[in-house]
Structures are given as structure tokens and as C-alpha cells.
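sry for the spam today, last one i promise. C-alpha cells for design, 341 residues
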């Protein structure tokens, strides 16, 4: 049955952010992506207004012909590559919040989550990519920045490059009933949101603390590059500015800026508490010089190294890890709080 453009625009208008129009056109991967990201943060949904005629034409062509997986190769798309990077990072952040307590998370869980995000974008439309190669590249890259949230970036980059390298057209398949498709989409949606909801509702304080730590680490790393830092600031404040342009209420805009400032103040305060605790672990006063920090770290490592404390291995291991973590925190230069207004 041919797809209608008017029906597609209607579904786009009333259910676009959750992918109803893509579900109607048989683009299930695109529908799931929109369900999990609310239409690409709303921006992807708005941008699609001009793309719907081509989506409808593509869906109608797919009904009239069969295509084998080896039939040609899709052209390289910079937009798809950037989307793969962003969604891979997004899936990785969600996994950090909800699954980081699992054993071997940074070796198995994180690369798997990032790969699934990258492959979801790779499967949008009539294209797809190779799961084994993409996951393999992510796993091999996972030791980079092992144990730190920033590891998401190289993992997502490696997975996205590999997915683009192995891109191909989807093979034609027999049409499925809407109930089967909804069942599959529902399972995928629950697999993504279930662990996150459990983490947020079951351990809210720890989840907020971990989100703040992850966000703080990313902001700290990004601030090394001034241009990237300003771009990140613009992205975070984009919802406020869009609302101001649409509604034209400076008072609301000012209030929203204050809400975002509270978020950054929370992150800053959390990072400051970590630095104060790190000073206590190393037995240093606040504001100690880099030379003092390095000297104290070196002396404490000699004292508490597990090889030198075989009679109290567990206690030595605990102190040794605390010293390592404290030194890592204080090794990063403290940056002045940015002005977000």
C-alpha cells in the first residue's frame, strides 16, 4: 500500500518527536532513534520538515523492488557520521549513569552501549553496517582513558569510523505486521530506559552525584579547547534561547539562565568537594603547590604500595587506590568558573 505525503506530514506534526511518521513509513530504526532522543532534541524533528517528501518516495520505491545487500554501496555521509558520534556518546553517558556498577563495565558494557548507539544511526533509512566490526573497534579502543568518563569519546569515534567503513544497503525483507514491529520497538525502548529508570528511582542521590561527576569531567576536558567550550555552552543553553525566540519573554529567559547556572554550580561544588577530599587524603593544605602534591603522592605511594604491605593487603590496596584517585584529581588544574549569562 502506497504511503501518502499528507498522512506523513500529519503524523510528523502530532507525533514527530516520538517517530510516528517514521513508524508509518516503515523506518523502524529511525522511529526508535526519535523515541530515545525525542526527535533529536527537537532539532532533528524540525529539520525533517523538508525531508519528508524524499522519505515517502523512498518508502514507496522500497515496496516496488527488492534489493540485495551487495547492490552497490551507500555514499559517504558527513551528517550521518556526526550523528553516529553524538548518539554513541549519548548512549555511553546513559550507560555510565545506569550500568557503571556492573563488573567489567569499561571493557564490555560501555563499548557495547556506544556501539549500539552508533549502529542505530547507521541503520536509519535504507542503510546499515556491520555489528561485529563496529563492536570490535569499540572494544579495542575501550582501554583508552580506562575507568574515566572521557573514554566515551575515543570509543564513539572508533565505532563511527568503522561503521562508515562497513556501510552497506539493507537487504529487502518480507513485510511484518504492525504488532510485531511495535513489540520489537517496545522491547528495545525498555532495554534502554529500564536500567536508567531503575537507577534514577532506586538510587536518586547516587545517580545525581554520578551525573554531576561525569558532566564535570567532560566540561573540564572540553574547557582545554576554548572554541569547543563555547560551542558546548551554546548547546546547553540552546533550549532557553529557542524558547526566548519563540515566546519573546526576557523574564522567562532570565529565569531559565538561572536554572542552568544552578546546574553548573552543583557540578562546580561537587568538583570542589572532590578536591578538598583529595587534599585530605594526601595530607596537604588547600592550595598546595604542584611540587608539594607530587612529593606527597610519591611518599605515600611508597608507604602504602601493596607489595610493601603484604601483612595488610586489603587496607594497603584501599589506601593505594585513594592516593591514586586523589593525585589524579589534584593533577588537573583548577579552572575558574565560567560565566554562563
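last one done:
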Amino acid at each position: 500500500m502506497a504511503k501518502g505525503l499528507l498522512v506523513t506530514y500529519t503524523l510528523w506534526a502530532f507525533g514527530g518527536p516520538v517517530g510516528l511518521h517514521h513508524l508509518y513509513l516503515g523506518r523502524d530504526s529511525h522511529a526508535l532513534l526519535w523515541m530515545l532522543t525525542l526527535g533529536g532534541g527537537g532539532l532533528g524533528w524540525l529539520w525533517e520538515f523538508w525531508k519528508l517528501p524524499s522519505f515517502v518516495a523512498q518508502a514507496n520505491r522500497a515496496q516496488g523492488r527488492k534489493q540485495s545487500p551487495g547492490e552497490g554501496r551507500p555514499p559517504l555521509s558527513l551528517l550521518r557520521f556526526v550523528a553516529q558520534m553524538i548518539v554513541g556518546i549519548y548512549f555511553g553517558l546513559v550507560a555510565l549513569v545506569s550500568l557503571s556498577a556492573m563488573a567489567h563495565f569499561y571493557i564490555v558494557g560501555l563499548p557495547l552501549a556506544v556501539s549500539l548507539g552508533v549502529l542505530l544511526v547507521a541503520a536509519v533509512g535504507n542503510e546499515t553496517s556491520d555489528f561485529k566490526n563496529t563492536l570490535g573497534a569499540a572494544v579495542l579502543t575501550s582501554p583508552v582513558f580506562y575507568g574515566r568518563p572521557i573514554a566515551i569519546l575515543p570509543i564513539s569515534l572508533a565505532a563511527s569510523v568503522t561503521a562508515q567503513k562497513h556501510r552497506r544497503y539493507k537487504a529487502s525483507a518480507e513485510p511484518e505486521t504492525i504488532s510485531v514491529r511495535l513489540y520489537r520497538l517496545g522491547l528495545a525502548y525498555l532495554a534502554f530506559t529500564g536500567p536508567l529508570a531503575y537507577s534514577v528511582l532506586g538510587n536518586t542521590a547516587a545517580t545525581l552525584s554520578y551525573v554531576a561527576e561525569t558532566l564535570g569531567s567532560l566540561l573540564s576536558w572540553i574547557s582545554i579547547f576554548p572554541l569547543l567550550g563555547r560551542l558546548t555552552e551554546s548547546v546547553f543553553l540552546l533550549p532557553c534561547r529557542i524558547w526566548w525566540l519563540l515566546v519573546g519573554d526576557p523574564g522567562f529567559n532570565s529565569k531559565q539562565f538561572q536554572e542552568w547556572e544552578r546546574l553548573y554550580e552543583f557540578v562546580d561544588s561537587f568538583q570542589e568537594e572532590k578536591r578538598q577530599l583529595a587534599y585530605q587524603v594526601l595530607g596537604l593544605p588547600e592550595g598546595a603547590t604542584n611540587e608539594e602534591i607530587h612529593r606527597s603522592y610519591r611518599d605515600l605511594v611508597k608507604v602504602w604500595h601493596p607489595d610493601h604491605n603484604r601483612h595488610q593487603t586489603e587496607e594497603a590496596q584501599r589506601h593505594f587506590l585513594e592516593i591514586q584517585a586523589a593525585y589524579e584529581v589534584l593533577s588537573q588544574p583548577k579552572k575558574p568558573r565560567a560565566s554562563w549569562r
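The mean pLDDT is 79. ok im logging off now
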